[in-house]
Amino acid sequence: MPTLLPITGRPVRVAVVGLGTVSELGLVPYIGRDDVTIVGLCDRDLARLERWGAVWPDAARFTDLDEMLGIDADVIDVLVPTPFHGDVVCQILDAGYHVQVQKPLARSLEEADRMLAAAQRNGAVLRVMEDYIFFPPIAKLGEVVRSGEIGAPAGIHMKIVATGRGGWDVPDTSWQWHFEQAKDGRGMLVFDHGWHQFAVAMWLFGPIRRVFGWVGATEVAPGISMDAPSTFVWEHTNGVRGVLDITLSLDQYFRSDHYTGDERIEVTGTSGYVRCNRISAFGVQQPSVEVYKDGEIRAYHALPDTLPAGFEASTAHALQHLRGETTDLVMDGVSARAVLVALLAAVESGKTGVPVDVPLD
User: Which of 40, 77, 168, 315 could disulfide-link 15, Cβ–Cβ 3.0 to 4.6 Å?
Assistant: First the structure.
């Protein structure tokens, strides 16, 4: 039986399974918080256990998930690769824990529905850690759009520039499962990274009813291709149209403390526009958010605009929900499934070359 919510009068007890590269972003927000206790760490790699065990020396360490289940925890943070989400999350939910899992929710709707069913039958919270919606410049962009300052929204343009120079070193093991996953069309840029863009678009403008995808391929090593250049065009049920352009620029340098490459988002309204100039890297050295209206530009120079800020804000939101300080959970399993439906429709369109209607049930 999962812990009854809200959790009050004590810290939230968190255990973690999967301590790979994304843990360097996903776990840092817990450090130093007095409203969280990390009670367990699980990974098959002893070096990873040692790295995070040094941060939380009182946390129990496990190399097997079965051994960890039964630990006195409220929620388990799942950071394993996407292909393992379905089995791992369902096992944890059935063992009586709330779950937060990294995006994307799953690789297929069948896996997603298994996870949602497990959460429902156990009365557990299932949340997807989506950091872009909480990234302060994107949050500010959303505020501007909803304020009406730029008029009624007319369209959204998104761009991903994937570069080969400037970011942190990623172990080969982290690349391997991505390339394996890409064999059935769920590539690193379109499926794994594109999740963020579709999530943000739907957070801003609601459900997508139709999408067209044009997916390319560029060989970056013998037998290994990246899913770019790629372009997606879609329409929301409210009439707003969107474009996502994914470009591979291997020799370009973007300074970054984390992933190479960068993203830009621009929403055009009937009387102006608002633009987020960068997310993952420091590619565009301008204020992270700019608003244009009536011949003048207003810029935001002091927003927290490094990638970890989104993880920090998203983590804070999850803890607020568990403590009963907010009932509006972003993003829960149902809303994450809706993003997956739209994203898979985009992938299907990229394969067939024709627009795909997105199921809205």
Answer: 40
Domain span at 36:
12-129
Answer yes or no: do 71 and 168 share one domain: no
Verify that 53 and 201 share a domain, yes or no.
Answer: no
Task: Looking at the structure, tell me whether residues 210 and 166 fall in a common domain.
Answer: yes
| Average pLDDT over all residues of the chain | 94
DSSP 8-state secondary structure symbol assigned to residue 349 = H
pLDDT at 282: 87
Nearest to 280 by CA among 305, 250, 244, 315: 305
Burial tier of 130 (Cβ tally within 10 Å: 0-12, 13-18, 19+)? buried
Burial bucket for residue 1 (CB in 10 Å: 0-12, 13-18, 19+): exposed
Check whether residue 125 and residue 147 sit in a common domain. no
What CA–CA distance (Å, rounded) separates 65 from 88? 8
* pLDDT recorded at residue 329: 96
Residues of the chain with pLDDT under 50: none
- Supply the pLDDT for residue 165: 85
Residue 317, C-beta contacts closer than 8 angstroms, at least 6 positions apart: 134, 326, 330
Q: Is the pTM of this model over 0.90?
A: yes
In three-state secondary structure terms, 12 is strand
**Distance from CA of residue 156 to its chain's centroid?**
19
